[in-house]
Design goal:
isomerase; Pseudouridine synthase; PsdUridine_synth_RluC/D; alpha+beta; globular; Structural Genomics Hypothetical 15.5 Kd Protein In mrcA-pckA Intergenic Region, Chain A; S4_RNA-bd; 309 residues
Length: 309
């Protein structure tokens, strides 16, 4: 069912393009906002608009938002290479390979952690939307490493709360281009969808607060291996923040990485790995920690960097 919205344009959006204003107000991509405008479903002070028109603070905006697309159901099929690091009656911790999303989403037709677990005969919690059952946190499809899924309802609710309250220790390792200065530091910069509407994210004024702590593990001639602690968990956060300080993850062409270096290292994705995951077990209360070794492609790339240094 369509969603009718009527509201004044906030003063903070003064002078913004209509498509950009819609994207900011309703969490849409710029391309999706442009489609709604082209369909005549946006009125500004009672008149239709073009996507490049500018809005003014206090103008009356009327928008008919189409119903959100329905995410597909998970396809239950085992995933070769997705190892189980730990399992009990309440949780299952997997070592997620590259090319696997956490759960089905609109526009993703590839394998998912949820589908892989179901296909291998594991049970998961039934809380949450059908396509996200048991999922309490996510890794990007091409980010590898440790990921926990809830099997029981009590584990689902307690782990969701733990991630929300930031009591989970999520430690990543990233091989980034160049040498961050200082060697240890914090990047505190808000993140939201990239203005291009192409699916990327960016540091954007007025975005969601996002904090990344990093520490140098080893500096090489062309790159630096970082240990990263996420205080917040925004989509693409590490990739966006490292790109914003001009040290993108090696191989991350979407966020400005050098394609020549990526080719030399044999990388077809960002060098980013969820190496450690620690939290209070949702039913025993015991502090547990899981470690994921580097997958083959990241290990090979690191060996090349080390040999060149």
């Amino acid at each position: 069912m369509a969603d009718m919205r009527s509201l004044p344009v906030p003063d903070g959006l003064e002078g913004e393009r209509v498509d950009a204003a819609l994207a900011r107000l309703f969490g849409l991509s710029r391309s999706r906002a442009a489609e709604i405008i082209a369909a005549g479903d946006v009125l500004l002070d009672g008149g239709t608009v073009a996507k490049s028109d500018r809005v003014h603070g206090g103008a009356w905006l009327e928008v008919t938002l189409p119903p959100p697309p329905t995410a597909p159901a998970p396809v239950a099929e085992p995933i070769p290479g997705m190892a189980v690091l730990y399992e009990d009656d309440d949780i299952v911790v997997v070592d997620k390979p590259t090319g696997v999303a956490a759960h089905p989403t609109t526009g993703w037709n590839g394998p998912t952690v949820l589908g892989g677990l179901l296909g291998a005969g594991h049970t998961v919690a039934t809380s949450g939307a059908a396509e996200r059952q048991g999922i309490v946190h996510r890794l990007d499809a091409n980010t590898t490493g440790a990921m926990v899924v809830a099997k029981s309802e009590v584990a689902y609710s307690r782990l969701k709360r733990a991630f929300k309250e930031r009591t989970v220790d999520k430690r990543y390792q990233a091989l980034v281009q160049g040498h961050p200065d200082p060697f240890r530091g914090t990047i505190d910069a808000p993140i939201d969808r990239h203005p291009s509407g192409d699916g990327r994210f960016a540091v954007v004024a007025g975005g969601k607060p996002s904090v990344t702590h990093y520490d140098t593990v080893e500096a090489y001639r062309a790159a630096t291996l970082l240990d990263i602690d996420l205080e917040t968990g925004r989509t693409h956060q590490i990739r966006v923040h490292m790109s914003a300080v001009r040290h993108p993850c090696a191989g991350d062409l979407a966020y400005g990485a050098d394609p020549t270096l990526a080719a030399r290292l044999g990388l077809r994705r960002q060098w980013l790995h969820a190496a450690r995951l620690g939290f209070e077990h949702p039913t025993t209360g015991e502090r547990v920690e899981f470690v994921s070794p580097y997958p083959d492609d990241l290990a090979r790339a690191l060996e090349i960097i080390q040999a060149e240094s």
